[in-house]
Amino acid sequence: MSLHPRRASLRTQWPTVLWLTVVWVLLWGDARPGNIVNGVLLGVLVTAGLRMTPIDFHGRVRPRALAVLVGRFLADLVRASFEVSLVALRPRGTPRGAVICVQLRSHSDLYLTLTGELVSLVPGSLIVEAHRLTGRLYVHVLDVETSGGVEAARQSVLDQEERILRALASDAELAEAGLTPGGARRRPAPTEVTR
To answer: Does residue 7 have a pLDDT over 90?
Structure first.
């Protein structure tokens, strides 16, 4: 055990420092050594100065499923941008918005957060509230008719969660969410009918 847990945690935070440095350099658009050093210093300051709740990650990254997640997200981004622009440019008619409740299958804070972020980044939908303990997301949908109805909007959130789980969750987490590791949903056991 270390006498300085903060120093030990700094040693384990190097991926976060690296990521923050990359974001810093990309935001400035300048990869000169001085800017990189500033990014590293900022990353160390953020990780050492801000106490963040640790999030347990017991999964594994599946490259093929991750490519499907990213590809589908980009396709949804383009499609939704087009749909929102049509709603905005429509001469008459007010969009019929709704707030829907979606019960997620996973109870992990990480997957709840990722699902909420990816849903909010797609134009036309916004997370209004997230209940951590119940695993529910409340999503505002700009135009229910364009989304295909309330159930279609709810299913698109569940599909997004499924793609995230397939890309990042462990086999045990997939089974807990009712998904098989191979790709299909687990079928419920048939109910026995007594006569």
So the answer is: no
